[in-house]
Model the fold of this input.
Amino acid sequence: MKNWLKKTWNWLLGKTTIDEKVVEVIKEVKEDVAEVKTRARNVVKEVKEVRTAVRNVVKESKDVVDAAKGKSTSKRKPRRKPAAKKPAATNVGDTKPVAKKPTNRKPRRKPAAKK
Done:
């Protein structure tokens, strides 16, 4: 009976170490899964950035092909030429009187006359 009790006790202790090992493995697996998820999110972000960059490259390459064919670019507007200056009025009657700009200053008082 004593021998059987020792064997059973040792068997139970052996089972608990397996359970502890399983718990440790589960913790490690959870940490690995979390790390893989963050890596996957980062990869998805980078793929989106690459996709937009490739779209821009495709658009620009079409412009290069059109330029090689001799077509003008449609993206840039031509530089605006400065407006021509108007000639000065030669006749006195042609000029319009210029209105004075209103000012915010108070009008000056004339000094009082001395007696």
